[in-house]
Amino acid sequence: MDMKRIVNAYFKAFERKDGDAWVSLFAPDASLGGPAHTPPVTGHAALVELFAGIAALFESVKFDIMAVHVHGPFAVAEFRLHTRARNGSTPSTKGMVAFAADASGRLKQVAGFWDPAPVFSQAMAA
Predict the structure, then answer these.
(1) Residue range of the domain that includes 44
(2) What CATH code is carried by the domain that includes residue 9?
(3) pTM for the model
């Protein structure tokens, strides 16, 4: 299993706003949680809904991956996020995402460790 490839595919799918590719990286019962998504979102249907809601707010999303640390089926990615919201604002932030994959190489648990409030409040401002 190539965790760096999986991590890169996760971020690239987000940048392309390709929800199908992004959700396909997850096991059917996977969860996405952490401070950025509390309570956790579990299962493909909930992930599809989450992705669609986020993608609708932004014209563009760009991740600068600062580092990816891998140990077996686990990885942590440090990133800087740059966005252009549909309202014209350009919120950005930095943080980390932790990944755990199952034996088939599909994401089982993902946890975002960053504060989404400033990004989303700017993107949703009138």
Answers:
(1) 3-124
(2) 3.10.450.50
(3) 0.94
Q: Collapsing DSSP states into helix, strand and coil, what is residue 91? A: coil
C-alpha 26/C-alpha 30 separation (Å) is 6
Residue 39 structure tokens: 């309570």
C-alpha distances out from residue 111 to 22, 106, 114, Å: 15, 15, 10
Which tokens go with 49? Answer: 């809904």
Cα of 88 vs its chain's centroid, Å: 22
3-state secondary structure 34-70: CCCCCCCEECHHHHHHHHHHHHHHEEEEEEEEEEEEE
- In total, how many domains does the chain have? 1
pLDDT digits (tens, 9 = 90+) for 37-57: 678 999 999 999 999 999 999
Residues belonging to the chain: 126
Name the maximum alpha-carbon separation found in the chain: 45
